[in-house]
Design brief:
The protein is of the alpha+beta class. The protein has a domain of 102 residues: 2-Layer Sandwich (Alpha-Beta Plaits), CATH 3.30.70. Helices cover 28% and strands 13% of the residues. The strands form three sheets. The chain has a two-stranded antiparallel ribbon. Strands 3-6 form a two-stranded antiparallel sheet. A hairpin with a 5-residue loop joins strand 4 and strand 5.
Length: 155
């Protein structure tokens, strides 16, 4: 048998939740998915309607529920697939942005809490820049998932 790394499963009920602290799902301390990410979600907390779709549909359970009921993408768990952007019903609330624009995995919600005006200006610049660029993977424009579904239905 070849040598390998064993990553133990999380125990049932891992993570904590409820109360004033929000909810953070259990996550492996050693298995990180972000190292292969080429894009990441940027969240507009001002327009979030707290619908839970990003949180429910994320295949990596990367969204933490904040104490005020918003959804903060935990960049240690996010693989950059873009499902959150595709399911969000609010235009420009979740936008996938090139990973090259970042140098850390810090919490966007915490940055927004510290300086809402500064965060909103930063986020707006990133989102507008991303709209004018071809994406680095997957669908090359916002709405690519919906376009593919429409094409399949028409066929």
């Amino acid at each position: 048998m070849e040598e390998g790394l064993v990553i133990r499963a999380l125990p049932q009920g891992a993570g904590y939740g409820g109360g004033d602290e929000g909810y953070v799902p259990g996550r492996s301390e050693v298995f990180k998915k972000w190292s292969t990410r080429s894009m990441r979600p940027v969240i507009n907390f001002e327009t979030c309607i707290k619908c839970t779709l990003c949180w429910l549909q994320c295949p990596d359970t990367c969204f933490d529920v904040t104490p005020d009921g918003l959804y903060d993408a935990n960049m240690e768990s996010c693989c950059g697939c873009g499902v959150c952007e595709a399911v969000c019903p609010v235009p420009d609330c979740v936008t996938m942005v090139s990973e090259s624009q970042f140098n850390d995995n810090d919490s966007q919600w915490e940055a927004w809490q510290k300086d809402k005006d500064g965060y909103n200006k930063w986020m707006t610049v990133l989102v507008e820049k991303q709209k004018s660029e071809t994406r680095t993977h997957g669908f090359h424009h916002v709405g690519g998932y919906a376009d593919e579904i429409n094409e399949m239905e028409e066929a």
